[in-house]
Write a structure and sequence with these properties.
The protein has one domain: Rossmann fold, CATH 3.40.50. The chain is 46% helix and 15% strand. It contains nine helices and seven strands, in the order βαβαβαβαβααβαααβ. The chain is globular and about 50 Å long. It starts with 6 loop residues before the first strand and ends in a 7-residue tail after the last strand.
């Protein structure tokens, strides 16, 4: 499964699922770059804490919803001597509200961060992958992109769009040695989910057949496999890992 000597870039890689993916890819022998929101004052301390546990990451600030910001990211990454072989489009946000109450800024923010970012971040890195004849693009969607969720028209639409992007791009680059796949996690034991009201969290867990939230490390292990040489025959797929909550 291990694919040595590659470099991976994970957007939103400094917390939650992104952090777990960064650590799993590091464990698999890859050099790892993470991105974070510009001006994040906690990144330096986070990098130090990760280094103390044996994880050496490079970190860059970027606004994935902004095209020029992502192009500058790519220029800086390349200028620093990195070549990105594995791209994990993980950064995402929620702005939950029923459609009747959802305002335009709440719609735009989610679509730009979760969906526009697929174009913004992937575009500058895919051409070098094609030139080298090897690449892995892994897009993180969600269970709610497939089944929908009350109060998440913006989020569900954005995550459904992620897999549409995946399927089309996979066909374009399949003969170039580059695979493109989607991973759709269910509800995970992350800081964001754990902050949900206890009664609501109980309802969520009760709807999961395995009877618990997923662990970020479980999703990360799946991502590490998709990023490996062993997964070369897999492209255009949407792999769900949700404890049986949504079977399709």
């Amino acid at each position: 499964m291990k694919t040595r000597g590659r470099t991976a870039l994970i957007t939103g890689g400094n917390r939650g699922l992104g952090e777990a993916i960064a650590r799993a890819l590091h464990d698999a022998g890859h050099a790892v770059i993470v991105t974070h929101t510009p001006g994040n004052s906690r990144v330096a301390a986070w990098l130090q804490a990760q280094a103390a546990e044996g994880y050496a990451f490079a970190a860059y600030g970027v606004d994935v919803s902004d095209y020029e910001s992502t192009q500058e990211l790519a220029r800086q990454v390349h200028a620093d001597g990195h070549r990105v072989d594995i791209l994990v489009n993980n950064a995402g946000i929620t702005r939950d509200s029923t459609l009747r109450k959802l305002d335009k800024p709440g719609w735009d923010a989610v679509l730009r961060t979760n969906l526009d970012s697929m174009f913004n971040v992937t575009k500058p890195f895919i051409e070098p992958m094609i030139g080298r004849g090897w690449g892995r693009i892994i897009n993180i969607a969600s269970i709610n992109g497939s089944k929908g969720q009350f109060g998440q028209t913006n989020y569900s639409a954005s995550k459904a769009g992620v897999h549409g992007f995946t399927k089309a791009l996979a066909q374009e680059v399949a003969r170039k040695g580059v695979t493109v796949n989607t991973v759709s996690p269910g509800y995970l034991a992350t800081e964001m989910v754990s902050a949900v009201r206890e009664d609501v969290l109980g309802q969520i867990v009760a709807a999961i057949p395995v009877g618990r939230l997923g662990e970020p490390a479980e999703i990360a292990a799946l991502v590490a496999f998709i990023a490996s040489d062993a997964a070369a025959f897999m492209t255009g797929s949407n792999v769900s890992m949700n404890g049986g909550q949504h079977m399709y």
